[in-house]
Amino acid sequence: MNADGNSFFRDVWDVARAVPYGRVTSYGAIARYLGSARSARMVGWAMNASHTADEPVPAHRVVNRNGQLSGKHHFPSSDLMCQLLESEGVEVKDDQVVRFGQLFWDPMVELKV
DNA sequence: TTGCTGACCGACG
DNA sequence: CCGTCGGCCAGCA
User: Fold this and answer.
1) Cα–Cα dist A96/A111, whole Å
2) Closest C1' nucleotide to A9's CA
3) Which tens digit of pLDDT belongs to each residue from A34-67?
4) Fewer CB in 10 Å around end: N or C, chain A?
């Protein structure tokens, strides 16, 4: 986090915050939107560094391609991610987002350009 | 400074 | 069908 503030992380956080209420997206979708589909790992890493962001990042809305809460273990509380999602009306079953395909929000399609 | 690792994804055998 | 590997960028020892 240098003075630029325009780091890869910032972009990831920006997209993560752009996820509408009650919607979820995937790491690959964000990475692809940023132009680096193969840097999906970086997206996850950015989420890990989300605590460095000045503003809170809804990391709970970011799940893997399978709709599984892969990063729930990294939350303060494993159940927190589940709680937040359910609080937004997103049903979670067995650490997996139900109707993932329906709730999936693709920045590439919504934000485009 | 160099090198490994990471909340992933897609391809290959 | 399932296990393995490569790739992208940034942070940390």
Assistant:
1) 25
2) C10
3) 988 888 999 999 999 898 888 899 999 999 999 9
4) C
